[in-house]
Amino acid sequence: MDVFSKKICISADDFGMCRLGNDRTLFLLEQKKIHRISCLVYGEYNEDDIQRLVASNAKLDIHLDTETEVKQEGSGRGSVARRGLYFLYEFWFTKKYLSKKMEQEWEKQILLFYKKFGKYPDGLNTHQHIHYFFPFFRVLIRLSKKYSISYIRLGKNSFYVPDAVAIILDILRIFDITLLKRSKKQTSDVLLSFDWFRQGNFLTIETLYSRLQGRNIEIIFHPKREEDFVFLSEKNNF
After folding, report:
1. Number of neighbours of residue 106 by Cβ within 10 angstroms
2. CB 66, CB 97: distance < 8 Å
3. What gap in Å lies between CA 179 and CA 22, rounded to an integer?
4. Are 127 and 68 in contact (CB under 8 A)?
5. Which residues of the chain register pLDDT less than 70?
6. Most buried among 26, 64, 226, 228, using CB within 10 Å?
7. CA-CA distance, 139 to 143, in Å (whole number)?
8. At 158, phi and psi to the nearest 5?
C-alpha cells in the first residue's frame, strides 16, 4: 500500500504568502494532491484564486498569524531555540502576545476570512504552530466553539521524530490534549510535517508507515518551497 492512503491528509500551508506559493498550491490542488489548504487572510491573492479554492473539494482552513501583514520568509526554520526564547520573552515581558489581544486579533481574522471566502474556515491552525502554547490553545478552542469550526490542528498522539520542532510540539501537546477532548473538536490521530523528514527525502515516513497504519494522519507541506513542491508533484497515489 502506498504511504498516501485514504487516511493521509495532505495540508498545504501559507496560501497568500507569495505568488509562487499560490500558483504551486493551486496546481497541486487541481491535480488532486492536496486535501486541506491553510490561508493567511492578510496574504496576497486575487478573486480568481479565491474562486478556485472555494470550487475545489479541499477543506479551507485559516492560518492565523500574530501580525496584520504577511512577511515573506525563507525556510521558516531558523534557530528553534532562538525563536522560542524570543517568543517567551515577548509573551512574558513585552505583553505583545496577551491572550486577550490574541483572541481579538484572531477573531478579526476569522471574520475577514468569512468576508473573503463567503464561509467560515473548516479548520483552525496558526503560523509557526504558536497555538500549541496552552494560553493560545484555550483561545483557539473558544473561537472554534463560537464560530462552529470543527477541526483543530493538533494531533491526538505524539509520534517521536528526531526534530527539534516536532519534539517541542509533542511536549506542548501534553497540556492541550485534555482541553481538545473536552471540546469534542476533530483533529488527526498524528500530525507530521515534511520539514521533519527533509534530510531523508521523506523516505523515513514511508519506512515508518507500518506503525501509522490505520491512523488518520495530517502531513504539512509548504508548496512555495522547491523540495515540497517537487515531492508532491512526483507522487501519484494519494
Report:
1. 22
2. yes
3. 34
4. no
5. 1-6, 68-96, 198-211, 236-238
6. 64
7. 6
8. -75, 145
Express the helix, strand and coil content of the chain in percent, nearest 5 each. 50, 15, 35
CA pair distance 32, 56, nearest whole angstrom: 9
Task: Locate 229 and state its grid cell.
Answer: 513542491
| C-alpha atoms less than 13 angstroms from C-alpha of 210 in its C-beta half-sphere | 1
CA dist 59 and 207 (Å) reads 28
In angstroms, the CA 148 to CA 193 distance is 26
Q: What pLDDT shows up at residue 183?
A: 97
Identify whether the C-beta of residue 36 lies closer than 8 Å to the C-beta of residue 59: yes
- Confidence (pLDDT) at 99: 80
What is the C-alpha to C-alpha distance for residues 52 and 47, in angstroms, rounded to an integer?
9
pTM of the model: 0.87
What DSSP element (H or E) covers 36?
strand 36-39
User: Identity (one letter) of the amino acid at 183?
Assistant: S
The amino acid present at 214, given as its one-letter code, is: G
Query: Given CA atoms 29, 217, 230, 79 in this order, what sign does their dihedral have?
Result: positive
How many angstroms separate the CA atoms of 181 and 162, rounded? 27
Element counts in the chain: helices (H) and strands (E): 9, 7
| Cell (9 digits) for 58 | 479541499
CA-to-CA separations, 49 to 42, 58, 67, 78, in angstroms, rounded: 14, 13, 22, 30
d(CA 156, CA 120) in angstroms, rounded, equals: 24
The secondary structure of residue 112, as a DSSP letter, is H
